[in-house]
């Protein structure tokens, strides 16, 4: 399978090239040249298949031409070492819990898959080790570091701003050891990102070591997220609730929802999608007006969705041939303030006992507001509420339980390399690696 760039000005790439490069040469996002429809018999029997079997079928449609079946099956099964269950919250609203992975957020799925696919390609090359550089303001670093932990042939450097990430987030990438190095930068997130970008352009560093990124726009990170939409449909079908199923996705950079939309193109019978935004409502405004207008990022309670220029909009646009009417026919939007988020978390907790995190709260609320008679809604609960324990306890007046695997991280010993925000310091460190 070849991959083209959404900007259409870069050459087509193989899967291998698209995974190693991340972004196309013209700064567009890679798209598979064909999206295969799955046979009706698959959908007829899907409720009798396991999550692993469903994911293997979907993975084969995406990657089967480029990865041998046995290898692909192993990569999928290693990736999905945890379940993504559907849990009833309200009479007609269900939560697709995507937080049962190692770092308690849905990004575990894409990060784990990408690590294993990259390893598969590196083994074929028999080349020197690959070094992944990733800048993080918190969540991405933990998903990528844990996704790549212990994966042979790959070393990960996580750059994060000193004193600017929460303790819970920090311990998820500073206590791992092995092939993960955490680098504490005396600066802000933008400094970390600038160091990474400059490193990719630096001839000395590139001569010294093989560098790559694990950015969320990478096809190997975003496509595998389709697995759990197929599984959600299967589990809802088994409950007899899939006839008019609406999927609602709390969205920031729009990678997660785009994977679900790929499912639809492959024939997955989900009636429609809702993209739930926080106050960063660029997509919502696009749906209303047909004009895509990036905005400065606003800080909100659901901070992983604080994106003012969502990268994957280019993929949604491309998927529907740039037709606003085709996009609005299948996807609707919603936007919520921090006050809406707090109120929704309190209302849901008081009435149902279910603890939403601030991101999932946007998804649940959009279903409450927009679900029509006869429809059943499923929203993505994108992170475990304990990842935001202080905020959640403050809003709900609770003392929520911290899951064992999160508590384990907090017991570990922190180990970091310190650097200034000057590129020369960072470079000198990498040249000694
Ligand atoms: C990253 C993230 C999102 C946003 O997902 P996108 O794929 O960027 O739209 C939502 N919720 C949580 C908890 C996240 O970490």
Brief account:
This protein is α/β, with parallel strands linked by helices and 433 residues long. 45% of the residues lie in helices and 16% in strands.
The main sheet comes to: 6 strands, mixed
Q: Based on helices, strands and strand pairing, what is the structural class?
A: alpha/beta
Could you say which overall geometry the principal axes of the C-alpha atoms support? globular
Runs in which pLDDT lies below 50 for 5 or more consecutive residues are none
Q: How are the strands of the largest sheet arranged?
A: 4-5-13-10-11-12
Unique bound compounds: pyridoxal-5'-phosphate
Q: How many DSSP E strands? A: 14
- What is the tally of helical segments? 20
Indicate the radius of gyration in whole angstroms: 21 Å
Percent helix, as a range, is 40-55%
Beta-strand percentage? 15-25%
Mean pLDDT: 95
Regarding quaternary structure, what we see is single chain
Distance between the termini: 36 Å
How does this structure look, described?
The chain has 433 residues and is α/β, with parallel strands linked by helices. Helix content is 45%, strand content 16%. The chain contains 20 helices and 14 strands. The chain has helices at residues 15-21, 40-45, 51-63, 69-79, 107-125, 139-148, 167-174, 189-201, 203-208, 219-222, 226-238, 255-265, 282-289, 313-319, 324-330, 338-352, 358-370, 389-396, 404-411, 423-431; strands at residues 2-5, 13-14, 30-32, 86-88, 93-97, 130-135, 154-161, 180-185, 210-213, 245-250, 272-277, 331-335, 376-381, 416-419. The two termini are 36 Å apart. The structure holds pyridoxal-5'-phosphate. Residues 105, 107, 139, 250-256, 304-305, 359, 382-383 line the site of pyridoxal-5'-phosphate.
